[in-house]
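User: Here's a protein and a ligand (heme C). What would the complex look like?
Assistant: Let me lay out the input and then the predicted complex.
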Amino acid sequence: MKKTVLLITLSLTLSLSFLFSSISFAFGPEEDSSENVIKYRQYVMNAMSNHFKALKFLATGRITQPDQWLPHARSMVDMANMIESAFPPESDFGDTEAKEEIWENKGDFNQKALKLIKASEATVKLIEANGHDKVLEQIKEVSNTCKACHKKYREL
Ligand code: HEC
């Protein structure tokens, strides 16, 4: 009797895990439509852009929220880390400003994303060290990494 219960439990567990693994496969990144991939990466870019603008507002003294510099800078690092996977192959068709050259030079494109990650991480470190004064200069460095990528890989 005990054995039967054990067997039933085991087979149930196995079939459930199979079911879940097939579900996650069905909704894996490779199944996402090009249209949704494009929309999603534009949301990510806009989210990053808004954190950047908010940080610039703080660093230029237009807003006084000393505790909010760090969350914006950290969010920029998080968003920047999403860039590489936001441009999978076959996602250059549709309502996009992404140039085909991205997929011909994915290594260089990823390097440009990495420069933004590094510049954003440096911003986080500056703020953590309470160096609010130098943040504005660092933000300019960040902005240069955005421009360097857009110039080469974004239709403007
Ligand atoms: C490694 C390359 C790269 C970097 C770095 C980068 N971008 Fe982009 N960005 C792109 C590409 C490519 C597009 C076009 C995406 C599309 O339309 O599919 C884009 C699109 C955008 C858009 C428009 C989104 C929309 O709704 O169409 C904004 C805003 C933006 N980027 C802001 C920024 C800011 C701000 C930074 C720096 C903090 C930045 N980007 C850094 C490649 C980059």
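Summary: DSSP finds six helices and no strands in the chain.
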